[in-house]
Each structure stands twice: as C-alpha cells, then as structure tokens.
C-alpha cells in the first residue's frame, strides 16, 4: 500500500508486493493497453496512507505542459485535513511529463486514456480492491479535464464524481503558428527551435493579474519547472509536439455530448462539476455556454477575476472546491 510520504517503486502495477519507500514522489510501472512494454510512470500522493471502506480516493490529471506538481499548491497545505477526512489524493504524471517516461507513440486521446485507466487499475490492486468499493473522484485540469471527461463513460462503475477545471476540447480557432506546428514536417522543424522560448513568454497569459498575491511566485515557479522539463526530461519536447499534432484539442465536443446525454438519462451516473475562470483566455471562458449545453446537469462554478492558471496560484481560490472534496461522503 502506498505511503503518503513515500517514494514507492513498483516493479509492475500487477505486483504490488514489491515496493520501496524513499520520499514524497511515487513511481509505478504503467503498462498501457496501447503498448507492449511497461513504462515507468510517476505520481504524487497526499493524505491518508491506511485505507478502509470509508476512504475517499481522488485522482488528479494535469494539463498539456504541466505535471503533477501543479496540484501541490492545492493539496500540500491540506495534509492534516486530508488525513482527518480519510482522503487520499493521487496526482499522476502523464507520458512525457514530470518524472514519467516519454514513449515513441503518437500522443493521442486513447494513449492518455490508457495511461489514466492503467493507473486506476494499479491503484485498485494496491488498495486490495477498495477502489471498486469506494469509488473515485477524478479531477482534470485543461487537457487533463478532457482526458477525465473521456474516461467517465468507460470507467463509470468506478467514478463517483468528476471535477473538470477549464476543460479543453471544444472547437477553437488555432493561430497560424499552431496550425504550422500540426504539420508533421514543419512541426518537427519549428518546434525544437522556438517552443521553449515561446512557452516561457506566454506563461503570464494564464493569469488575470500578474501582481496579485501568490501569482508572482507561481509565475516564477512555472517558468522554472518548464525549464527543468526541457533541460532534464529527454522526451519532454517531443511529447509536447506529438500531443499538439495528435491530441484532438478542438474535436472533443462529441465526447462531452455523450457524457451529457448519459448523465441526463441515468441518475446513477457520476456527478460532474465544471470550474472555469471568467478571464480564462487559454481555454476561453466564452466556451462555457456550449459546455453547459453539452453537460446540462453538471454544476458550474465560475471564478471571477481568474485566468487559466489562477486557480492554482491565488491562495484560497479553490478552497471551497477542496472543502467539498474533503467533506464528500457519497459512495457508489
């Protein structure tokens, strides 16, 4: 069983008896259904370390260029509250991000779904089947929101709730540079030359007020983490490029529509909350009305004076959402 302060190395998600404890970061060999060889996947864990039939399990999925560290600002300060509420938080690193290996595959929606679902399977094994009994809450940010939305129907029997933070996937007009990068030939030529500097320059666009309390430090930390990923992770840049070229950022309306129809027709379906910054330009808040049409039974929480990154930067902005997770006692 995983330790909240443990850096646990599993030889395979199928063999949870083999583990070692070293720090706060955990690692598990994720063997995706889309691959034929195991790959090392990492995740972070906060909260409960001993599980029972009352434990609340939460799995968090990050966005396009972030990693599991994006969730530290939400959950690290909540260590005591998580333990008291018997809540275990897990934030995974997707392929090619954080400490998870990159792979020589197209970074499609199906590939990321395999990464998430295999981790969920590992977690169920690691908790001796409690995940199936207790259910899980999935939290997805930006691209991670789209990945979570896509997992709701396949994993319905496990999911009790889903929280989508500025979820991507609805139709959007791509700028010329993005359209050029989607070209296999031009993307392979242009992306390595300009990606890091361009992404560094655009970091501030994720915030409504770059001088607000906590935001300046968050910008610096985001830039530093981005630099570390480009400098240290051998597959980070290639993973980003493949994701840009193969992930359907503007083509997931049918996914949300199917989820919305299932929610409307079956009261036993997971509950969904959509959280969106009213000043978000990265995943434009102007898409919210369409999302509400597609997910008519979802609960929508609008964050005033919040850009795309502000929910993780401004102290207290997500406090009520975190509190609802801690207090949630719904079981399947």
Describe this structure in words.
β2 (25-30) and β3 form a beta hairpin. A 9-stranded mixed beta sheet has the order 1-2-3-5-4-6-7-8-9. It is globular, with a radius of gyration of 19 Å. α3 (109-126) crosses α5 and α7 packs across α9 (236-246). It has 13 helices and 9 strands. By secondary structure, it is α/β, with parallel strands linked by helices. The model is unreliable at 1-24 and 31-37 (pLDDT under 50). The chain has helices spanning 72-75, 79-84, 109-126, 130-134, 143-152, 176-181, 184-202, 215-232, 236-246, 253-265, 288-294, 310-313, 319-327, and strands at 9-10, 25-30, 39-47, 56-61, 87-92, 136-141, 159-165, 271-277, 299-303.
Supply the key terms:
nine-stranded mixed sheet, alpha/beta, single chain, 332 residues
Q: So what's the overall shape?
A: globular
Instruction: Write down the secondary-structure element order.
Output: EEEEHHEHHEHEHHHHHEHEHH
Average pLDDT rating:
86
Write down the Rg.
19 Å
Number of strands: 9
Share of helix, binned: 25-40%
User: Helix- and strand-based class?
Assistant: alpha/beta
Strand order of the largest sheet: 1-2-3-5-4-6-7-8-9
**Major sheet characteristics:** 9 strands, mixed
Distance between the termini: 22 Å
Unreliable runs: 1-24, 31-37
SS field, number of helical segments:
13
Beta-strand level of the residues, as a percent range? 15-25%
């Amino acid at each position: 069983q995983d330790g909240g302060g443990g850096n646990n190395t599993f030889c395979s998600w199928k063999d949870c008896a083999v583990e070692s404890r070293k720090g706060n970061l955990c690692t598990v060999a994720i063997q995706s259904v889309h691959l034929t060889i195991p790959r090392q996947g990492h995740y972070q864990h906060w909260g409960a370390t001993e599980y029972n039939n009352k434990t609340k399990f939460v799995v968090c999925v990050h966005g396009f260029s972030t990693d599991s560290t994006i969730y530290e600002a939400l959950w690290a300060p909540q260590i005591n509250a998580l333990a008291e509420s018997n809540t275990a938080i897990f934030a995974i690193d997707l392929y090619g991000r954080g400490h998870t290996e990159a792979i020589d595959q197209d970074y499609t929606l199906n590939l990321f779904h395999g990464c998430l679902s295999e981790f969920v399977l590992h977690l169920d094994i690691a908790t001796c089947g409690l995940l199936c009994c207790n259910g899980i809450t999935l939290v997805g940010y930006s691209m991670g929101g789209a990945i979570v939305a896509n997992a709701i129907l396949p994993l319905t029997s496990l999911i009790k709730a889903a929280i989508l933070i500025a979820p991507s996937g609805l139709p959007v007009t791509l700028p010329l540079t993005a359209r050029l990068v989607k070209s296999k030939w031009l993307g392979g030529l242009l992306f390595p030359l300009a990606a890091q500097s361009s992404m560094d320059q655009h970091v501030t666009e994720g915030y409504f007020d770059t001088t607000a309390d906590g935001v300046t430090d968050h910008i610096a930390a985001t830039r530093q983490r981005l630099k570390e990923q480009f400098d240290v992770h051998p597959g980070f840049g290639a993973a980003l490029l493949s994701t840009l070229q193969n992930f359907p950022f503007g083509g997931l309306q049918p996914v949300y529509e199917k989820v919305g129809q299932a929610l409307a027709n079956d009261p036993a379906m997971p509950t969904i909350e959509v959280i969106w910054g009213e000043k978000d330009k990265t995943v434009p808040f102007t898409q919210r009305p369409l999302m509400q049409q597609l997910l008519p039974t979802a609960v929508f929480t609008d964050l005033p004076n919040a850009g795309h990154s502000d929910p993780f930067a401004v102290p207290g902005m997500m406090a009520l959402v975190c509190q609802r997770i801690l207090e949630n006692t719904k079981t399947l």
